[in-house]
């Protein structure tokens, strides 16, 4: 098994051709959905979070006892902030990682984008639901940040298990186990960030800033 497993970024040669084709098909559907009626004012935000995703996913921590590496994914953050635009940031970030850092692969770009992007879209869709249910901001972030990473790792596990050219079962299990700390860290990070943004810039999360309550002066005695 000579193909390296870089976290949840599958390399060229790891998967059967049918899975590669289905990955590009899924990516095409996500991109059409993401690019539909993009407004000009959304472009800077997409660019900022594309850069954040690219940088976070480019710093790898090698695990000495396991034949893999881990890194932050931030798909929960990208999904919560960008919503249905998240696949744009993820696809561009993954493409740049391959072109500039040889991280991942060109033939697996589609399936990698699906692995990371589908949980991001789910996190973005669930955020307003949890807000309407009055789930506390920190808890929302923890659930969606950790859940999006866990979803990506589980999808990566299933793709390796079902679509691998070789027997990847043992390594897929190790990658799943190695990312438990990443799930915890990203959940806590997004929890803190959501709590902060809800207070200072709720419009980034699709929330409305509460209007200030009018100052009500104390009742004045107008009797003569």
UniProtKB/TrEMBL annotation:
Region annotation (Disordered) ranges: 205-224
The keyword Cell membrane is assigned to this record: yes
Primary localisation category: membrane
Membrane association type: Multi-pass membrane protein
Membrane among keywords: yes
Cross-referenced Pfam families: CbiM (PF01891)
Keywords: Cell membrane, Membrane, Transmembrane, Transmembrane helix, Transport
Sections of the chain in a coiled coil: none
Subcellular location, record wording: Cell membrane
Gene3D superfamilies tied to this protein: 1.10.1760.20
Transmembrane segments: 14-34, 46-66, 108-130, 142-162, 174-197
Family matches, as InterPro entries: CbiM/NikMN
Protein name as it appears in the record: Cobalt transporter CbiM
Organism the protein comes from: Gemmata palustris
């Amino acid at each position: 098994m000579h193909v390296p497993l870089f976290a949840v970024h599958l390399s060229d040669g790891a998967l059967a051709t049918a899975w590669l084709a289905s990955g590009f098909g899924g990516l095409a559907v996500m991109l059409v959905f993401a690019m539909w009626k993009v407004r000009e004012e959304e472009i800077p935000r997409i660019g900022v979070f594309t850069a954040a995703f690219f940088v976070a996913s480019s710093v790898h921590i090698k695990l000495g006892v396991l034949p893999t590496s881990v890194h932050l994914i931030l798909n929960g953050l990208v999904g919560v902030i960008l919503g249905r635009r998240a696949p744009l940031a993820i696809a561009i970030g993954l493409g740049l990682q391959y072109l500039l850092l040889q991280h991942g692969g060109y033939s697996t770009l589609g399936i990698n984008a699906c692995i990371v992007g589908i949980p991001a879209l789910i996190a973005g869709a669930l955020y307003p639901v949890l807000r309407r249910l009055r789930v506390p901001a920190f808890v929302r972030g923890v659930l969606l940040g950790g859940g999006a990473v866990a979803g990506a790792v589980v999808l990566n596990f299933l793709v390796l298990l079902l679509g691998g050219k070789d027997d990847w079962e043992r390594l897929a299990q190790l990658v799943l186990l190695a990312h438990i700390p990443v799930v915890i860290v990203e959940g806590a990070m997004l929890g803190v960030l959501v709590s902060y943004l809800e207070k200072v810039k709720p419009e980034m999360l699709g929330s409305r800033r509460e209007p200030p309550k009018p100052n009500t002066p104390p009742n004045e005695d107008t009797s003569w």
